[in-house]
Amino acid sequence: MDRWAGKVAVVTGASVGIGSAITKALVKKSVIVVGLARRKEKLQEITNQLGKDKFFGVVCDLRSEADIVKAFDWVQENLGGADILINNAGVTGDSPIIDSTVEDFRKILDINVIAPAICAREYVKSAKKQNIAGHIINISSLAGHNADIVIVPINMYGASKYALTALAVELRHELSDTNIKVTNISPAEVRTDMMKNFYNDSAIYETLPILNDSDVSDAVMYALATPPDVEVIDILLATRGRSHALQGPVTQIMQKKRNEQKE
Question: Rounded to an integer, what distance in angstroms lies between the CA atom of residue 25 and that of residue 205?
Answer without folding.
Answer: 25
